[in-house]
Amino acid sequence: MMWSFVVAAAAVVTALNVRAEQVLLLDTTTEATLGWTRFPYGAQASTPGWLEESYTNFEKQINWRSYVVCDVAHHNVNNWLWTPFIERRNANRIYIEIKFTIRDCSLFPGNALSCKETFSLLYYEFDVATREQPPWEPESYKLVGRIAAGEGRFNTNSEVDINTEVKSIAVTKRGVYFAFRDQGACISILAVKVYYITCPEVTVNFARFPATPTGREVTVIEQANGTCVENAETAPGEVPPVYLCKGDGKWTLPSGSCKCRAGFEPDLNNQVCNECAPGKFKSHTGDDPCITCPDYSESTAYAAAECKCVPGFYRAKKDPKNVPCTQPPSAPVNLTVTFADQFSISLAWQPPHKTGGRNDITYRVYCSNCGPNIEYRPAATGLNNTRVTVMGLDPVTEYKFQVYAENGVTEQTGEEPKKVEITAVTEASVVSVVSKLRILSVESDKLSLAWNPPPIDLTDPDDTIESYEVKCFPKDNMEKSANATLKISKEPHVIITGLKRDTEYGIRVRAKMKRGWGEFSGIVYARTGSVLETTFVGEEEGAQVRLVAGVMVAVVVLSVVAIIATVLFLRSRTDDECDKKQPSDCNALNYRNGEVYTGPELEEWLECIKMSRYIEKFRAAGILDMDAVVDLTVHQLASLGVTLVGHQKKIMNSVQSMRAQIRGSGPYGFLV
């Protein structure tokens, strides 16, 4: 920015020092003879009129052809003298400079009949030069002015006083005649010069402006458009160069500019653009000078717009031309496995020792023998950090991983990026599986469930349970649904909330052992209700058990119980282990694929029906197991201290349900 300001300021100062130029159209001082048209002329003339003669002053080296007239002794003097036809060329305004002398009328006492001390200057514009004498009638001419001796008149007792008068006229036609009219003066026209003024040719801001004639009027400003010097151009976004020519022939108010092209630098003094020398370059149009090639690059020719990278070094497409050339990085180092289980492996590494001179290193991870469904977290390519986890692997499988280091010039090399490799093996699948997954209660928007922990080896420190993962998902969408809910629990029970009303859900649980995740349990299904009732579902060794019991009309209840009891009777014949009883009052669910298994304890039953407040009363009365519960009567409940009719009804409904199951299942236990 500062360099551009200095260039522009210096160029303007240079232009302001240029003076106006005169373009001569007529100069009598350089001609040996004139032969201008005169009137009157010849033998018929009443007065001698204008006569051509020489004016000499050897001391001043003057020898001019001139015209004189001195008809002061005549009446009605009317002498005309015409210049030749003067073409105006590019002129908008023409100037005429006259050097003359006038004799003082006091030199002619008594002899001067019409002595005057002025003469008239007139002009006549015409589009075509003619051989005929121009008209001399005054009405055909325009008066420029009456001219008098400004410097003084002379007589015999003084030296000749040469007067200089400059007049100007605006012109529009091809050319002009000037006329000198004498009406009784004693005059010598010593020299006549006709010219026009131009703002001279000039170069400013690396733009060349041609010589420009001034305007038709002195106050008019002419605009000139500049042309960029060789190897310069108007910079993008800037206006073309313009300069204003004033009426006095001086330039003013330059605007716009040209800038040296890429590969050329400005020469301020000479207003030219010079080539960058070998070893230097300039990458853009502007006022900046050429600079030395960046590291690992070179230019061997003149006018270089960029320096080419030396072999083995590269420049990315987005890199500026003034940055050093760079290389691809070396391989990452210290690739290690930071975690591995049955299904995933985590890797970590350190950046390469050699960055290649760049700071845009990214990493790419590739597994040569992984399946198509693996997942990289956070990503497999374009990694900015030095860690990745590969998921979706198979247990007890050896995998080979490569980690590549790449940067902005890697693709330009045409070679494979540097890499580091490692082989890792996933762990064996943990066979630990939770058992007896059961749903304790179901409401319109939540489920309460519990399970038995998997068996553990107390002598093995790695065979300890760290947590449980519970997966709950709508049955129709199964586990791939985006609506699946995952919960982590430290205890073998959990409450899942935020569920949809009247929707069937599948639930499965797995344990996180210290040595890895165990397998998921079998799926248990439950449907959320439209009323806030409780439900209990049990499961053992992968079997799915569904129970539906409702507080309905007695006939409907007995019919449903009879159907379920029949199915269980047929299936229980093949299951010798299901010989324990389990009560439940969960009367809001339908159960499918029912199976006999050991029922809940007293505390769990009371908690399921939300009557756990009476646990101590049951114990105090000696009711310690479910066999005693089945024989309960309303009178006994009242004697226990359960006096609220609603609580009595809720407990007895559950007891009656268990009695009906006992009658349907015989000696094989309770259906839940």
TrEMBL record:
Q: Spell out the InterPro entries in the cross-references.
A: Ephrin_rcpt_lig-bd_dom, Ephrin_rcpt_TKs, FN3_dom, FN3_sf, Galactose-bd-like_sf, Growth_fac_rcpt_cys_sf, Ig-like_fold, SAM
- Main subcellular location: membrane
Task: Name the residues that span the membrane.
Answer: 547-570
Query: GO CC: one term?
Result: plasma membrane
Q: Name one GO biological process term.
A: axon guidance
The scientific name of the source species is Spodoptera frugiperda (Fall armyworm)
Q: Where in the cell is it found?
A: Membrane
Q: Keyword set for this entry?
A: ATP-binding, Membrane, Nucleotide-binding, Receptor, Repeat, Signal, Transmembrane, Transmembrane helix
Domain SAM span(s) in chain numbering:
597-661
Q: What are the boundaries of the signal sequence?
A: 1-20
The UniProt record lists the Eph LBD domain at 21-204
- Give a GO molecular function annotation for the protein: transmembrane-ephrin receptor activity
- Using the record's annotation, list all stretches that form the Fibronectin type-III domain: 331-429, 433-531
Q: Domain of life, per the record?
A: Eukaryota
Q: Does the keyword Transferase apply?
A: no
Q: What is this protein called?
A: SFRICE_017877
Q: Pfam families per the record?
A: Ephrin_CRD, Ephrin_lbd, fn3, SAM_1
Keyword Glycosyltransferase appears in the UniProt entry: no
> What topology in the membrane does the UniProt record assign?
Single-pass membrane protein
